[in-house]
Write a structure and sequence with these properties.
The complex is a heterodimer of chains A (355) and B (249). Chain A has 355 residues and is of the alpha/beta class. Chain A has 16 helices and 11 strands. Chain A is globular. The N terminus of chain A is likely disordered. Chain B is 78% helix and 0% strand. The longest helix of chain B has 32 residues. Chain B is built from 11 helices and no strands. Chain B has 249 residues and is mostly helical. In chain B, helix 3 runs antiparallel to helix 4, helix 6 crosses helix 8 and helix 10 runs antiparallel to helix 11. The chains are: A alpha/beta (355), B mainly alpha (249). The interface between A and B is medium-sized, with 31 and 26 residues.
């Protein structure tokens, strides 16, 4: 009932506003007032819609706002948990916190207090937490590996060494993919000086590869599978071969939310664990759900998910290795990578403590 | 009077610093940290080695290229549309359909047509500049008083002369307004233009997006301030050109 009071208030005040203006102007503008009333009414109705919805919630349901990434397979567990009712089973009322275009925006939403929990990649989480720009804790892993170096069709390259002197696209400076590329180059006896690294966002990597403007691209799934599917290139090496079991996406919780609602976090993690196990047992069904949620072609979702390891136990060593990389290139300034990583990860919400 | 120019920016800076110091703006960087950011960007750069001056030159180049193409095409088109109502009827719907499309929506097509690099970025800036110049040129030509045109014709001027000596000079003030607005919008599209299509690793929009990725909001704001300052300088230059061109008034 309280909500309706709010709506009435919203409805009422602006309607009187054009009226004031009318007197000030000395009459006229009846049509404008009518328009304003219509506009305000529509706005009030729109605001009432989601508010009206929460009257129906059962007693004891815990509300949690979860952020995700648009078009992404990072959060297949989230799709599965929604679709299979795992959140509801845990007594959760999960609100779509927003499907973000990129991890950094999702992390800013955390610092603005707009999200309680979220699925995000290693890079934005560590980068933002390492600079005190967002206070979050990693409560579970979502997936591991699942990136790849793709070379354009027609490029004769059988191994990483063949990329010498080539132009290679990465999604961003100091991202996990940037690190993967540098690691692969190092293993092949090269450094970043031996190639031309440029930044191209994954969706544009596809035309860039197809048009021969870059010779290779490093991206996370589903982009490598999309590149293959659209005949823009072929996979040179999967990230699991460069850095086995490297962390990809994780489930994070706002530190403040976690302190105040540990039980809610525990329930979300429980649903997440259940969903992750479900994906491992039913990969094809999970891929189809991912296809429905993201709009990716079904065959792309299936191919992409083959190369992702779904795991809920945080890959602490891998996270620390990435923290050390960011520390070494000056992106984050933490005193000690090991203790920073320990403080960032909280496995206490996993069944059995996660160990 | 000249002294008053700095009052509004200065007041904005003071209020900004006070709000940040009072902790009211969350993670928003303070003016002091932004100045430090500009210094660090000039010396170290972001990514390290890619210094601010390089970003400035790259962006200036892209903006000027897009701007030059846009103005060269938009002014003649606007004059034609303002002059011939038949031509206007034919072309105007197309202009009005394309005009509201946000630059970011063009990005995939720009990459497809021009690849990643200079041209696709310049294309997005071109779109930002083009339409305000066209529309202002049209309205400039239309705003020329009909009796001036009539007078010229009565005095025996041919259509060509009417166009060159009456309509175009009469439209100039409005054209300049369009150019100034267009340039502003051109700068506004810079981040979208450099969001992905940067090959050299240089560009202010690209630098801002990199700063966002690595959570350096002081660098983000530093980039914003530099873009604002460049936009301001270029606007002043056009104003100067306008004064010279319209000396006859």
């Amino acid at each position: 009932m309280q909500h309706w009071g709010q709506v009435t208030f919203l409805h009422f005040r602006p309607v009187s506003f054009p009226g004031d203006k009318k007197t000030a102007r000395g009459g006229g503008g009846g049509a404008a007032t009518g328009f304003a009333v219509t506009l305000i009414t529509v706005m009030a109705l729109l605001m009432a819609l989601p508010l009206g919805g929460c009257g129906a919630k059962p007693q004891g349901t815990r509300v949690v706002r979860i952020g995700t990434l648009r078009n992404d397979l990072h959060q297949v567990a989230y799709y599965v948990a929604r679709e299979k009712g795992f959140f509801t089973e845990e007594g959760l009322d999960v609100r779509e916190g927003g499907a973000f275009n990129a991890g950094p925006e999702e992390m800013s939403a955390f610092s603005a207090g707009e999200l309680d929990m979220g699925y995000a990649g290693t890079a934005p989480i560590v980068t933002f937490a390492g600079q005190d720009m967002a206070d979050v804790k990693i409560v579970a892993q979502a997936n591991l590996v699942g990136s790849a170096i793709v070379v354009r069709n027609g490029l004769e390259a059988e191994d990483v060494a063949a990329l010498k002197g080539r132009t290679i696209a990465v999604p961003g400076y100091s991202t996990v993919q940037d690190f993967l590329l540098r690691t692969a180059l190092k293993k092949a006896g090269m450094s970043d000086k031996d190639v031309n690294i440029i930044v191209v966002k994954p969706p544009e990597m596809i035309p860039a590869l197809a048009g021969g403007q870059v010779d290779a691209a490093v991206a996370w799934e589903p982009y490598p599978s999309m590149m293959v599917n659209q005949k823009a290139g072929r996979v040179l090496i999967r990230s699991g071969k460069i850095w086995p079991h490297h962390p990809c996406c994780m489930l994070v919780a706002d530190a403040d939310f976690l302190r105040r609602n540990p039980d809610t976090v525990k329930r979300v993690v429980a649903a997440h664990v259940k969903a992750t196990k479900y994906i491992r047992d039913n990969p094809l069904e999970a891929a189809d759900m991912a296809h429905l949620f993201t709009g990716q072609p079904a065959e792309v979702a299936r191919a992409a998910m083959k190369d992702i390891e779904f795991s809920y136990v945080p890959e602490v060593k891998g996270i620390q290795r990435y923290v050390e990389f960011l520390k070494s290139n000056g992106v984050i300034k933490v005193k000690d990578a090991a203790s920073f990583t320990r403080g960032l990860v909280d496995t206490g919400f996993l069944p059995g403590g996660g160990s | 009077m000249k002294k008053w120019v700095i009052i509004s920016p200065l007041a904005a800076l003071v209020i900004w610093q006070v709000l940040v110091s009072a902790g009211l703006l969350g993670h928003t960087p303070s003016p002091v940290s932004v100045v430090r950011g500009i210094y660090q960007l000039s010396v170290t750069g972001l990514p390290p080695g890619f210094r601010l001056m390089g970003h400035v030159m790259a962006s200036l180049g892209r903006v000027l290229l897009g701007f030059a193409f846009a103005v060269t095409l938009a002014i003649p088109l606007g004059i034609l549309m303002g002059w011939s109502s038949v031509f206007n009827t034919i072309v105007d719907p197309l202009v009005e359909v394309i005009r509201p499309i946000p630059p970011l929506a063009w990005l995939p097509l720009a990459v497809l047509w021009f690849g990643i690099g200079y041209l696709s970025a310049a294309f997005l800036i071109f779109l930002g500049v083009f339409f305000p110049v066209v529309l202002n040129t049209v309205s400039g030509v239309r705003s020329v008083e009909p009796h001036l045109v009539e007078a010229a014709r009565t005095l025996g001027a041919k259509e060509k002369t009417v166009l060159a000596r009456v309509l175009v000079p009469g439209a100039l003030p409005s054209v300049f307004t369009g150019v100034r607005i267009g340039l502003g919008i051109g700068w506004m599209t810079l981040v979208a233009a450099e969001l992905t299509a940067v090959k050299s690793g240089y560009g202010l929009g690209y630098m801002i997006m990199t700063a966002r990725d690595v959570a350096r909001y002081d660098y983000v704001v530093a980039g914003i301030v530099v873009i604002g300052f460049l936009g301001f300088l270029m606007d002043r230059l056009i104003k100067l050109a306008e004064k010279r061109a319209l000396r006859w008034r």
